[in-house]
TrEMBL record:
This is Substrate binding domain of ABC-type glycine betaine transport system. InterPro entries: ABC_Gly_betaine_transp_sub-bd. GO terms for cellular component: ATP-binding cassette (ABC) transporter complex. Residues 49-309 form the ABC-type glycine betaine transport system substrate-binding domain. Pfam families: OpuAC (PF04069). GO terms for molecular function: transmembrane transporter activity. Gene3D superfamilies: Osmoprotection protein (prox), domain 2 (3.40.190.120), Periplasmic binding protein-like II (3.40.190.10).
Amino acid sequence: MPNRAISRRLILTGLTALATAGALNLTGCTRSDPLNQAAGKGSGSASSKTIVIGSQDYYSSEIIAEIYAQALEGAGRTVDRQFRIGQREAYLPEIEAGAIDLFPEYTGPLLQYWKPDAGSRLPDDVYAELSETTPDGLRVLDQSPATDQNAYTVTREFADRWRLTTLGDLSNVTVPLTLGANSEGEHRPYGPAGLAETYGVNVAFTPIEDGGGPLTVKALKDGDIQFAIIYTADPSITENELVSLEDTKGLFLASHVVPLASGNVDDSAAAIINKISAAMSPEDLIALNARSVREELPAATIAAQWLAQQNLG
């Protein structure tokens, strides 16, 4: 069986270039078809293989990944945690190369990454199109009721001043608009170009590399940016009296938590993860995120307590 461990140091410092052939070097050996090997070729039973679990560089993603890890460990499986890797441009090449086996993803954004012109907008349609679009050697497991939707968010003061409730209302704003988000957001289908095409709203862009976190919120409140991409399950929205503008034209696709899995995740492991997805509600995800932000608890503690509450531990 090939060495499938990933160097965390290499991930954190070099993943932005992994769209090149160098991505395969991080798996620790040369493989002509890593996805086929990840799908179960080679010696050893599927249940004896280590399952490499990754997460985005986002606390909510890490919590979900830790829930997956602890549930699998509780069933006697061996896991390797490779958390806080980065954004899709960093980790998806690694998943596609067979170096990561299991990753908590979000249906709409993942579909748009692989298929920018995706036509689906509603949850079940997005999931079906994503299932058809997922590359060979990978599959999406059951989507969860839990959602963490991208949303354009403004301060209450700015919303009241310009009478904003929808993204279309931004066209009535007569001051220059600057959007703040991770640098990748500038070129995503729902970024500035998507706003201009869908809503006729032209904006400048300021990169803020914290995934809609405290730096983004501070920039909003200080007036350095006028609106930002902040996930709807982020407790900072209510804590800071922010307003998420309604996306009436479907610029953002439905975004449900969905596990992305390689062939190394056999059916018994997939069944464990699917039970987690079914049990996690939208309210659960908000509460999990709040425990991280407000109580500053580690992901391992939050995950263990949630699994116990759900009788899944």
